Every structure is written in C-alpha cells, then in structure tokens.
Input
Amino acid sequence: MILSDADILDRLADGDLVVGPLEDVDLQVQPASVDLRLGREFLEFQHANIPCIHPDSEQEVEEYVDETHVDEGDEFILHPGDFVLGTTVERVEIPPDLIAHVEGRSSLGRLAIVVHATAGLADPGYQGQITLELSNLGTAPVALTPGMRISQLTFTELKTPADRPYGEERGSKYQDQSGPQASKIQGDHEFGGDQV
Output
C-alpha cells in the first residue's frame, strides 16, 4: 500500500517516520509524496586521465571528484551531459515497515533533469540525507537553486516489517550520511569488504 498525504502526516506526527526539516508542510506534503529540497553541496565528476574506474579502488574515485558548496543566493548550473551528486536538505528516518522511493518532480523532468540514475530507494531502517544522482539529459544548461523542491519521496508499506533493516548491524555503508556521498563500492563483500 502506498501512503497517502493523510497517512504520511499521521506517521510524521507519530514520529516513527521522520522527514525534516520541512519548511512548508502544506507545500511539501503532496497527495501521496513528500517534496524534498536541494541542498548546497555537490560532488562534481571531473574528466580524468585514467583508463577506467576500478570499483575496488577508493583512491581513483577521490582523484576525479571535486566538492562544490553553493553560497546563499547562488545557483548550481547543470550542463548538458553532466552527472553530479547532490543532496537533499531534509534528513529522513525510514521505519522498518516502510520503503521510500526517490522520484523526480515532473516540472524538472520536463527540463530534462533526472534526480537518480539507479539509487531510487531508501530501505527500511535507512537514516540520513538522500544523495541525488543529478543528470541533465537536455541540450541547454539548467540552473538549480539550493532550497528548491528537487525530488519527492513516496512510501510503500511492507506486508511485514523488515527483520534485517538497513543500518549499522548490517554494515550499511551509507547509514547516517550527511551531504552527497561518493560511491563506497570498494567496501562491498565481493571486493573484500564487509558492507552492504
């Protein structure tokens, strides 16, 4: 079952679902979703003189990612073909009986802005800000203003709460993230790590 605005507001009031800070509840809580605002931090991928990225090498990722902080009143220009990591202003805490789906807003989609490449889920138990995988699929640069509503979360209720929710006990590598986070794939089990 997908939560309606009434369900979302009830869960927020009960405190078992956390999405905040919400600047304007009436504006941000939609009929079946919650709009999230764009934060000020971005990780920009630079052209690198390496033959390829090796997922098991943290050093290579750090070499071609630059952190950008947008000052109050400024904009971030997303150029055609660019891929950057952004973040939401809001921090979320997803209870064990819900899964959250990160979706784009249709108004930005109509400007060719995509908010996630593949990471469109916040698992039961996840806590932290949402890293956005921002792309411009269009032919013109688009100005993104920190604080603008950039994405939305929908919530699906699970038939039963997760027995093993996302979190520290599972070795979940993005738990409690703040700001955009680059890939930590090198910590995955298949690369000799112990993370999920």
